[in-house]
Amino acid sequence: MDEPSIALDPRNRKNLIKVLTGIGGLKIIASHDLDFVRNTCERTILLDEGTIVADGRTEDVLGDEKLLEEHGL
Description:
- By secondary structure, this protein is of the alpha+beta class.
- It has helices at residues 10-22, 34-40, 58-62, 65-70, and strands at 43-48, 51-57.
- The protein folds into two domains: 1-41, no CATH class; 43-73, no CATH class.
- It is built from four helices and two strands.
- The two termini are 20 Å apart.
């Protein structure tokens, strides 16, 4: 999915998160919505100009403020 939460009102964003977390298996989501990623993904791969700069648990990757700042997030 590419930016699945874009242009959703809060209710539908919440519904989408509920649907996605209820689906088993692999989901690939590209998003700049870090709160959405936190709520839907266990693992995060951070890309910067096509290069993987971090790969790990979402809480670890998105909790690294310095890493996020260095890569424009």
